[in-house]
Amino acid sequence: MRFLLAPDKFRSSLSAAEACAAMEAGIRLALPDAQITALPMADGGEGTAELLTLATQGSWHTTPVHNPLFKLTEAGFGLSPDGQTAFIDSAAAAGLALLATPERNTTIATTHGLGQLIQQAITSGARTIVLGLGGTATTDGGTGLAAALGWQFLDAAGQSFIPTGGTLTKIAQLVPPAAPLPVRFRVACDVQNPLYGPTGAAVMFAPQKGATPAQVGQLDVGLKHLDHVVQQQLGLSHVAMPGAGAAGGLGYGLITFLGATLEPGVDVVLDAVAFDQHVANIDLILTGEGKLDQQTAQGKLIAGICRRAERAGVPVVALCGTLTLTPQEIRELGLLAAFSVLNRPQQLKEAVLTAAGDLMGATFNVVRLLTNHASLRL
């Protein structure tokens, strides 16, 4: 029997790769001769670049770049085996996690280092950039990234500068690079917010990045000014495009300055790992995550796996820590079945420590049931 293992991480307990290992161990106990393909997955958020690099058997590279406060740091990106595709997380160079809590100030934070990271990937030969949005410390509308990739932002005196969230209102003129970048962008984005306004980047996300109410207002005005200049000088208006407000307006900047397209994170990830090719000739897909709930059903990773598996005619079983979906919701999601791996009352701390063993045991039971009796075999 041929299995494809495609779990997401079990947050705070197992990485996606560790979940694959536990599942494989359970399968081997039930069916020693099984053919198993392990494909650790991610949903487009932080950590996606490393997993995509691993799944494609690519190589990992690091380079010095600016962190959100213009200080030097090391950031990494993955390259596919043919060197044509780079995998990058926006949080690698612009991430909130790169800053200590007292350092967090989104009015002065920049995406410049992310632009440097992209430039290094292009210099290394990449012609497609797969970029995961999320987890940034910035609200600069992607201007820092654009500045690192050849765009100039001039103030009223004609002086070039690198904008931050707090200085967006100083932009008086835009100067495009001499030539467009020789690269295509695929941006994994699950945020639908516009650039500014009541549901925009500043109001919805800047408080999480340390912004005070006054700074939120300042940032929102700055993003609105940025779009005004773009409309005047470039004749473009992407302000209301779903995802424009993602990652502090980075979505807007990628669309406006780099011609990127924003796509559902799960589709970008599944395409990048050639999921449709892996699922060919598979008998059963085992997937999972820490919590299987309404968010899962509303288009997250497992929902995407189920859609593609249905097209290929392959059943999917999900294993998780917490299961809150009803039987009807499980069926509507496209799963053959879903099970919690928890097998006894326990505190969260214990559940985290025993997650690998519990996942292995649940996998054993599923595979044993589906393969050991002829009337039940898939």
Automatic annotation (TrEMBL):
| Gene Ontology molecular function: any one | glycerate kinase activity
Keyword Ion transport appears in the UniProt entry: no
Show the InterPro entries listed in the entry.
Answer: Glyc_kinase_flavodox-like_fold, Glycerate_kinase, Glycerate_kinase_RE-like, Glycerate_kinase_sf
One Pfam family cited in the UniProt record for this chain: Gly_kinase
Q: Which Gene3D superfamilies match?
A: Glycerate kinase, domain 1 (3.40.50.10350), Glycerate kinase, domain 2 (3.90.1510.10)
Superkingdom in the source lineage: Bacteria
UniProt similarity note: Belongs to the glycerate kinase type-1 family.
Protein name, as recorded: Glycerate kinase
Per the UniProt record, the lineage of the source organism begins with: Bacteria, Pseudomonadati, Bacteroidota, Cytophagia, Cytophagales
